[in-house]
Design goal:
Blueprint (H helix, E strand, L loop, with lengths): L1 H19 L1 E2 L6 E4 L9 E5 L18 E8 L6 E7 L11 E4 L3 E6 L5 E4 L6 E2 L1
Antiparallel strand pairs: 1-9, 2-4, 2-8, 3-4, 3-7, 4-5, 5-6
């Protein structure tokens, strides 16, 4: 009886951990950043149109919002950038870095050159 209870608890714990996060397919193996940790924004862009993400790797963007771009994906993912949306009110949206198509924004301010090539990791495409 005790064995079944322990087994059941372990199974529930395992399922809970599996549901807590999900590894999504990589969009690219490399990205261009301002530094080796992609911690500094490359540029500021303004959204030209609304963008509604297809899955949790991407961030929603509303027309007119400012987006801080931290990375530009390379190779097969070169149509996507990674960044964070700046809302009109600081507390309006939780800060989260995610991907979006580069075609939905226009560059407004260049901040730092994207000259550092960095390998992407599984965490770059992990969903919470």
């Amino acid at each position: 009886m005790a064995f079944r209870l322990i087994f059941a608890l372990c199974a529930m714990l395992f399922l809970a951990v599996c549901e807590a996060g999900k590894q999504m397919p990589k969009l690219s193996n490399k990205k261009l950043c301002a530094d080796s940790e992609c911690s500094h924004p490359i540029l500021i862009a303004r959204a030209l149109q609304d963008y509604y993400p297809g899955d949790c790797r991407f961030i929603p963007i509303r027309q007119g919002q400012l987006v801080y771009v931290y990375a530009m994906l390379k190779d097969r993912g070169n149509l996507f950038w990674a960044g964070s949306v700046q809302s009109t009110y600081y507390g309006e949206q939780e800060a989260r870095i995610g991907h979006f198509p580069s075609s939905v924004v226009e560059e407004t301010h260049a901040l730092m050159p994207a000259t550092t090539e960095v390998k992407t990791t599984n965490w770059d495409f992990y969903c919470n």
